[in-house]
Amino acid sequence: MGLSLDERVRSAVAALLHVAGESQTDLAVALGVSQAQVSRRQSGSAAWSLADCEAVAAHYGITAHDLLAGPTRAAEALPAERRRAPGRHVPGARPAVADGGA
After folding, report:
1. Given 16, 47, 88, 93, which residue has the most CB atoms within 10 angstroms?
2. For 40, left (φ over 0), alpha (ψ -120 to 50), or beta?
3. For position 81, what pLDDT does the model report?
4. What is the pLDDT of residue 99?
5. What's the rounded Cα separation, in Å, for the pair 90 and 54?
6. How far, rounded to the nearest angstrom, does the alpha carbon of residue 26 sit from its chain's CA centroid?
7. Residues of the chain above pLDDT 70, percent
8. Are 97 and 39 in contact (CB under 8 A)?
9. What is the pTM of this model?
10. What's the CA gap between 55 and 84, in Å, rounded?
11. How far lies 34's CA from each of 25, 26, 97, in Å?
């Protein structure tokens, strides 16, 4: 069974945050809401509304359709100029483990 629409949106937002190198605080500022509100939406304790989805999509320069389609489509649709530069440090991000943790 696939992801629910809510799960797809949360996953897409998480992917966009990662690929763009942004934090929940950065997104909150762009949307004019608190970081706590973004956190509640991302944790599933509150839902992303359609208006929120349109605002998130506009912030990232993608369509709401791309956002609703899920993380892969949203990340692929992100314009190159919005992508984090390779090697750019993202505050609070943990380094990836290249060997899968072995």
Report:
1. 16
2. alpha
3. 94
4. 42
5. 25
6. 11
7. 82
8. no
9. 0.82
10. 20
11. 7, 10, 32
- DSSP code of 91? T
The alpha-helical segments, DSSP class H, found in 1-102 are 5-20, 24-31, 35-43, 50-60, 64-68, 71-77
| Whole-number pLDDT of residue 85 | 77
Tracing tokens 């509640």 back to the chain, one arrives at 40
Residue 102: both structure tokens together: 């072995």
Digit-coded pLDDT (tens) for 24-57: 999 999 999 999 999 999 999 999 999 999 999 9
Name the residue among 57, 55, 94, 93 with its Cα closest to residue 73: 57
Residue written as token pair 């956190």:
39
Q: Which amino acid is at 10?
A: R
